[in-house]
TrEMBL record:
It comes from Methanosarcina mazei. Transmembrane segments: none annotated. This is Flavodoxin family protein. Residues 1-105 form the NADPH-dependent FMN reductase-like domain. PANTHER family: IRON-SULFUR FLAVOPROTEIN (PTHR43278:SF2), NAD(P)H-DEPENDENT FMN-CONTAINING OXIDOREDUCTASE YWQN-RELATED (PTHR43278). Belongs to the SsuE family. Isf subfamily. Keywords: Flavoprotein, FMN. Its cofactor is FMN; [4Fe-4S] cluster. It comes from the Archaea. InterPro entries: Flavoprotein-like_sf (IPR029039), FMN_Rdtase-like_dom (IPR005025), ISF_SsuE-like (IPR051796). The keyword NAD does not apply.
Amino acid sequence: MKITVFSGSHKGREGNTLIMVEEFLKGAEEAGAETENIILAEKNIRRCRGKFECWLKTPGSCTIHDDMEDLISRFMGSDIVVFACPVYFDNVPSIMKSFVERLSPVLLPQFEEDGKGEYRHAKRYEKYPKFAVISNAGLPGQINFDVERLFFRRLARTFHTELVAEIYRAEGEIFRGQKNIMLKPLIGKYKKLLRSAGKEIVENHMLSEKIIEDLGKPIVPSSLYIKFGNEEWDRLIKENQTE
């Protein structure tokens, strides 16, 4: 099984989502999967021009020549594609949205009914990779993922595939406290859950209800997270203003 992660954080290799991805992939690799984590911030991905040339002029290929040519090949060559990104203002970051829009060539322009009374673009290929999502939000509460959750579920429908796993981590800035003596064991327990999730995806092609429930639980109480989070913001503001 080939699992490819497309990491769409503007911070590249410094974001909190990457910590989640690395643990998830460790579990997948232990279960025998071939894995790859592609950092979109390190790629040259120009914006879609919306001219439909990939459907009309060069069917199946974009007329913009950049890193997307290789990324589409890696996308289609995967058994499972993981979209990994933080929540930016209640939605996916612009770098991830640009990547998704440039996937248009793998579909056909013609419309078809999806079996549920809605319409979508028809398939260019017989088989598409299954999708999974790993996302991180700095604010507490699963409600922060409402827009992303709908976006990726609709995206799976658009690409004629299924969404086999959704991992949403609120209170995500807690990963910054990995060296804290009180937080370290709590974060370690959560990382172990992520590795288990990676194994389950390879072995079962889905996540169990138990691990979904455990992955969504707060690592620390929200009130405590907000208290220490605001104190940290106050510290950073003061630090930056006195430089």
